[in-house]
Amino acid sequence: MIDLRSDTVTKPTEEMRKAMANAQVGDDVYGEDPTINELESLAASIFGKEAALFVPSGTMGNQVSIMAHTQRGDEVILEANSHIFWYEVGAMSVLSGVMPHPIEGKNGAMDPNEVEKAIRPKNIHFPRTSLITIENTHNRSGGRVVPLENIKAIYEIAKKHGINVHIDGARIFNASIASGTAVKEYAKYADSIMFCLSKGLSAPVGSLVVGSKDFIERARKARKMLGGGMRQAGILAAAGIVALTKMVDRLKEDHENAKYLAIKLKEIGYMTSPEDVETNMAVLRADNLALSAPEFVAVMKEHGVLANAISNSAIRLVTHKDVSKADIENALDIFEKLFKIYGKEMN
Q1: Is 218 in the same domain as 81?
Q2: How many independent structural domains does the chain possess?
Q3: Residue 237 Cα distances to 55, 244, 255, 281, angstroms
Q4: What stretches of the chain adopt beta strand conformation (E)?
Q5: Burial of 22 from C-beta contacts in 10 A (0-12 / 13-18 / 19+)
Q6: Same domain, yes or no: 331 and 264
Q7: Domain end point (choices 246, 274, 290)
Q8: Is the pLDDT of residue 272 over 70?
């Protein structure tokens, strides 16, 4: 199977497996796991922050950050198609007792003026706006990079109003490679950042949150509350160290494969704007097929290609370490055959 569903399906490298097998471990809840301590120190250094926290998943990383930044009854401004709003099971309301205030963005980027308008004035009837979240890269926009200038503008507005900023940077290294902007630059304009090790960086498990020491202390307590206090988890952290030191630069290959896939799909009429492919995601059009996107995904699976429908007329294709250029060529051959069967005349 050619698996284009997500970069979450990546398998750990042999170097990761060896590092995991040989990892020194201790009890992390006591702060005694040397490999986790090393990973957290490395992450903090890369992002230019005081401290870091290893968590089992990106969702937990986002949620402990929200818990650490807010109080019950607060309001959080976020982009209307962000992962936190769409795909985290309403956790911010359940766990932190806060209300989302979604703003429609363009390619994942919120208009700073609209953000400022959404900040609540002091009023006994209103919730307090205590946090703004930004997602970079933006998943539902097709892996688009939120420009540094946009993040900086929102951060400056937030600071003017005494509000914190959190970046859901699940794929922040993809944004960095695509834009040429160091992750440390993004981190200058955020009070906290979460990033994943288990997507394009190919570690089997885990994400990290970076921020100030005080913030990380609050987030660590929130992690424990959620059942995320791990014991001898240095076995997992060892793969994370390899991910951060060996797997970042190769993300460029994933971006090149996604762009190539998009260009070829446009040539046969099933992609409108390859120039919109900035990182490792391309979106296949299904509006000129005789099947809906979910129906076409089921047919694709029968022919050896896995993908996810993101609407009734669009299918997300994600490139990653375990999809080679040869796999892309094979997938294109399969697509072309299926388009001849299920395509309809374009308007």
Answers
A1: yes
A2: 2
A3: 10, 11, 26, 27
A4: 2-3, 51-55, 75-79, 99-103, 129-135, 164-168, 192-196, 207-211, 281-285, 305-306, 308-309, 314-318
A5: exposed
A6: yes
A7: 246
A8: no
pLDDT digits (tens, 9 = 90+) for 276-300: 999 999 999 888 889 999 999 999 9
List the CATH number of the domain containing 298: 3.90.1150.10
pTM tops 0.90: yes
pLDDT in tens, 189-221: 999 999 999 999 999 999 999 999 999 999 999
Within a domain: 2 = no
DSSP secondary structure string, 217-280? Answer: HHHHHHHHHTT---SSTHHHHHHHHHHHHHSSTTHHHHHHHHHHHHHHHHHTTS-S-GGG--SS
pLDDT at residue 285, as a whole number: 86
Clarify whether residues 163 and 226 are in a common domain: yes
* Residue 294 domain boundaries: 250-342
- CA 294/CA 299 separation, integer angstroms: 9
1 domain residue, yes or no: no
Q: Is residue 347 part of a domain?
A: no
Pair 185, 281 in one domain = no
Using alpha carbons, list the distances in angstroms from residue 74 to 70, 155, 187.
6, 18, 24
As beta bridge partners, residue 109 has 106
- Looking at the structure, tell me whether residues 218 and 281 fall in a common domain: no
Average pLDDT in the 225-229 region?
Answer: 96
20 and 157 in a single domain? The answer is yes
* Run of H or E residues at 50: none
305 and 180 co-located in one domain = no
In the chain, the amino acid numbered 90 is G
Domain endpoint, select from 218, 246, 274: 246
Per-residue pLDDT of 48-74, as tens digits, reads: 999 999 999 999 999 999 999 999 999
Give the span between the Cα atoms of 37 and 315, in whole angstroms: 40
Counting Cα atoms < 13 Å in the Cβ hemisphere of 238 gives 20
Q: How far apart are CA 201 and CA 239, in angstroms?
A: 10
**Which residues, at least 6 apart from 56, have a Cβ–Cβ distance to it below 8 Å?**
205, 206, 207, 228, 230
| Residues 21 and 33 placed together within one structural domain of the fold | yes
* CB of 57 closer than 8 Å to CB of 84: no
Integer Cα distance of 98 and 135 in angstroms? 18
